[in-house]
Amino acid sequence: MTTGRKAPAPGATRATTRATTREDALDRALRALALAKSFLSSYDARDKTLAFAQYATLCASNGAPGKLTSASASIGMSRKPFRIVKPLESAATAARKRASDAPTSAAETIRALGMTCYFAFDHLVWACASGACGTGKEDARGRFQRLSYWGWFFGSASGLFLDTNELNALLDVMREKGFGEDGNAPKTRDGENTSPFVDADEDLDADEREAREREVEALRKRARKVFVGLITNSAQAILALALLEKVKMSKRKIGALGMFLSAVNIASMLPAPAAEAPGKTKTA
């Protein structure tokens, strides 16, 4: 016995699938566009994106005269307006209250002053390029450029010292709490585990488990920030020395290192992706 219902035509099914696929692709494209728009809303993000393009063209040209090298220089100059207030921000950081211990306080001061010099002298390079320095501007521009790179080096080296200290402090906290250990956590005199991370689900109510999870997440965020700082400050210090010709590197390697540094900075600044619309289902 047959029913009166007809099976959908194969062509109609394929058309529906194609329409759904196009709709999903459009939805992903719109979410990617929204993410890019949100990311590029800040001047710092625009600066880092242009930095990636600047170093990419330098890497491709290897410093040889031509269109790519000229493009790299032009892109570098186009970054300057997005950094116009950076010297003031760094100078304000230098004026803040310092840490109590002398080495950390000195490192914080050197980092702030170094980055202030980096941005301030870089702006003077920009002024010379625009013809504001008058006669002998090429000599002045070269001196300002070297002073800018030295400020970048000392600021980054001091930041690396501070990040190393922060990493040591973080490891001390993790060791004290038994984070990541398995059976080697601190014990009480009765031999009980004192770690909130090891066997933490035992004898804990919902509020205590939630508090423990928040503590773990806070440590993870702190660790991610420290590791990004270690990577970027190390790369910046090496890059500054290479640009000062104190470390022998080809222009291609300098460009590759600059691309890596810019990519790390961009990744650390990316906002969280927008969630899919409620009720949206993925197709098989």
UniProtKB/TrEMBL annotation:
Subcellular location: Peroxisome membrane
Coiled coil spans: none
GO BP annotations, alphabetical order: peroxisome fission; regulation of peroxisome size
Key words of the record: Membrane, Peroxisome, Peroxisome biogenesis
Main location: membrane
Entry GO terms, CC: peroxisomal membrane
Alphabetized GO MF terms: identical protein binding
Biased composition (Low complexity): 1-19
Annotated Pfam families: PEX11
Topological type in the membrane: Multi-pass membrane protein
Positions of the UniProt region annotated as Disordered: 1-21, 181-202
InterPro entries: PEX11 (IPR008733)
Family: Belongs to the peroxin-11 family.
Protein name in the entry: Uncharacterized protein
